[in-house]
Amino acid sequence: MIALLLALGSSLAYGCADFLGGLGARKAHVLRTVMVAAPASLAVELLLWPLLGASFSPAAVGWGAASGVASAAAFALLYRTLAIGPMNVLSPLTALVSAALPVGVGLLQGEHLTTAGAVGLPLALVAVVLVSAGDGAGSARPSRTALLLAFGAGAAIALQLVFLHQTPSDSGVAPLIIGRAVSSAVTLVAAGLMHRRLGPERPAYALSATAGVLDSMANLLFLLAARSGDLTVVAVITALYPAGTLLLARGVLAERVHRGQLAGLGVAAVAVSLLALT
Q1: Do residues 87 and 80 make contact, with C-beta atoms less than 8 angstroms apart?
Q2: What is the pLDDT of residues 79-122, one digit of tens each?
Q3: Is the dihedral of CA 139, 144, 148, 151 positive or negative?
Q4: Between vectors from CA 208 to CA 207 and to CA 211, what angle results, nearest 5°?
Q5: Burial class (CB in 10 A: 0-12, 13-18, 19+), 139
Q6: pLDDT one-digit tens code per residue, 230-255
Q7: Do 113 and 264 touch, CB atoms closer than 8 A?
Q8: For residue 108, which of 86, 164, 180, 229 sits 20 to 30 Å off, Cα-Cα?
Q9: What are the two backbone dihedrals, phi and then psi, of residue 94, each rounded to the nearest 5 degrees?
Q10: Is the pLDDT of residue 7 over 80?
Q11: 130 Cα distance to chain centroid
Q12: Residue 98's pLDDT is what?
């Protein structure tokens, strides 16, 4: 139950971070937004070091660095996918892959589900797709390249979660610090290479920094959830993060919530209830 609550908190924090990061990216190039968010996120993890401890063992450093590389790859692939579209088709694919792959890894590692979990898990995967999808009206058919990029983005997100799950349970926040440092370095290098294409607009510093702080908290909550529960359950609950983005977009920006997304929220509530019984 603790792992489930932590995973729900991680999902909510990821959703809020994506919402604020999206608002920031409307005001300036997305790389400018990330250049503010990433250091803010790293600062939070460094502040948590004295509170939660950090053991920089070879395993913690290795898996943490791998998660950082996967995080940077996920960002690059998502950015390219957004440029190609249509996202109401590609976003559900990305979310589904990011949830399904860790589930497969967890089952291969010997995790078992109760009857309630065996019903709740597929429902949660359905909810991920429904919540992250738009209305689909007038959508162009995605190209093979777009589908591959969306799959790659989901796989990169999944690998980041799997790599964090592999870190030693006594390593504290060391994997998060290493991972964020690596992903920040990759982002800064990318920004340096693309500086002529970033435009003159200044980033929304407050929005971007808050998004980074929330992303850091989301990573921490996922790590704690993965250490206290099964990856199969934790990963799929975390992948419900589009629900948080959806609700904030509805409340703050008055964006329309489509019937399928409402159905997805209902399915998610049922799935979470069933998974709580596991």
Answers
A1: no
A2: 666 556 665 566 677 778 888 888 888 888 888 877 888 888 88
A3: positive
A4: 85
A5: middle
A6: 888 888 888 887 777 777 877 877 76
A7: no
A8: 180
A9: -60, -45
A10: yes
A11: 17
A12: 84
Q: H/E/C letters for each residue in the chain?
A: CHHHHHHHHHHHHHHHHHHHHHHHHHHCCHHHHHHHHHHHHHHHHHHHHHHHCECCCHHHHHHHHHHHHHHHHHHHHHHHHHHHCCHHHHHHHHHHHHHHHHHHHHHHCCCCCCHHHHHHHHHHHHHHHHHHCCCCCCCCCCCHHHHHHHHHHHHHHHHHHHHHHHCCCCCECHHHHHHHHHHHHHHHHHHHHCHHHCCCCCCCHHHHHHHHHHHHHHHHHHHHHHHHCCHHHHHHHHCCCHHHHHHHHHHHHCCCCCHHHHHHHHHHHHHHHHHHCC
* C-beta separation of 77 from 156 below 8 A: yes
How much is the average pLDDT of 73-78?
77
Entry field: residues in the chain: 278
How many C-beta atoms lie closer than 10 Å to residue 199's C-beta? 10
> For the CA atoms of the chain, what is the radius of gyration?
18
Residue with tokens 């939070």: 44
Q: How confident is the model at residue 173 (pLDDT cuts 50, 70, 90)?
A: very high
Cβ contact 184:127 at 8 Å: no
The answer for 137, left when phi > 0, alpha when psi is -120 to 50, beta otherwise, is beta
Which tokens belong to 35?
Answer: 């250049």
Angle, helices 144-166/174-193, rounded to nearest 10 degrees: 150
